[in-house]
Amino acid sequence: MKDWQLLTEKLRQFNLERDWSQFHNPKDLALALSIEAAELNELFLWKQPWEANPLKVKEELADIFAYALLLADKYNLDINEIVTDKISQNAQKYPANKAKGNARKYDEL
Amino acid sequence: MKDWQLLTEKLRQFNLERDWSQFHNPKDLALALSIEAAELNELFLWKQPWEANPLKVKEELADIFAYALLLADKYNLDINEIVTDKISQNAQKYPANKAKGNARKYDEL
Amino acid sequence: MKDWQLLTEKLRQFNLERDWSQFHNPKDLALALSIEAAELNELFLWKQPWEANPLKVKEELADIFAYALLLADKYNLDINEIVTDKISQNAQKYPANKAKGNARKYDEL
Amino acid sequence: MKDWQLLTEKLRQFNLERDWSQFHNPKDLALALSIEAAELNELFLWKQPWEANPLKVKEELADIFAYALLLADKYNLDINEIVTDKISQNAQKYPANKAKGNARKYDEL
């Protein structure tokens, strides 16, 4: 069994014990994910790029992975596959020779 | 090598070829993650919880995982460990008998 | 009639003509607002604090004000009053002598 | 003096007394705004569209207006003007006869 599947299994079990799947529709899961992303961003607010508290970054990232995994589970997505596919797509949108050393969006390359 | 380490390795290689690590400080990576989370949420806007386009959900979730993995990499975090730790913490904050069937925050249980 | 009431009136009229109030429940309006906030943030991504395109900042800020006004309208809130109240509250949470020159949260002052 | 200008003046004064303008670059102000937007959204999480606590909605909306006004101030924007302009633009992107009763984006009308 893959890493991701093991984590998803643990999360599923956790929610099952609390009867929480009734709240976990995709729209609210996506909302929860973006709220956690904002909490992560708050660690950097008014600060230099490296000044966030690493212990808190760890906590918020864990929450983000948890909601992302639950959402992927709702749509039966395989994490390895979707991320690998996306990297391939991005390799076409951002050819190394054009994108090298700049952060412009693909439609401005 | 674990699943997520393989994905991280691919992402690192992708960015290396484009010389993008200069932009990838933790603050901007966290910002990028929250922007992708918003794009995910946009798929559900003005809609019922299950009406988002699944193909687009897949794309946005892939972006979210990619930035979350890059950020975890910056802080040398082990995904399995941080998510498992968080589940244990939440099991204490949300005891099954108290949290069962309600979505209140731990400080309102 | 106050400035913001005039704007609210125009927004209401705009939506009435499109029969959009059926979509504009508070939850989706709040979601729309956070999506616009993310679009605003995207203008600053991978950039120095002052490098965003001012014309685009103008556009995104307009969207944010529009959704914030529509949401305030749903709850019959007076903008002058709620912002002035909040400033008074913050003046107590962040006394000038303690908060001066630092960006710590009130519970860390 | 317009409503907006009065509020902006109060906010400016508040920050001046705390010497906070050093932190208030546009990038961090935009970030702060999106964090407040997420706090607003959290009031609706796992809930039906009208179940948020109105008193808390009031608080979070006030924070959002405050940061939006500070950001507008940085770019010398006139709120009435930018929102009115945006409504005119949207009237062209979303003609009433095509957009009536549906929530599709302008490029899908």
Automatic annotation (TrEMBL), chains A, B, C, D:
GO BP field: nucleoside triphosphate catabolic process
Annotated signal sequence range: none
SUPFAM superfamilies: all-alpha NTP pyrophosphatases (SSF101386)
GO molecular function, one term: nucleoside triphosphate diphosphatase activity
Domain of life: Bacteria
Alphabetical list of InterPro entries matching this protein: dCTP_Pyrophosphatase (IPR052555), DCTPP (IPR025984)
Key words of the record: Hydrolase
Protein name in the entry: Nucleotide pyrophosphohydrolase
Lineage: Bacteria, Pseudomonadati, Bacteroidota, Chitinophagia, Chitinophagales
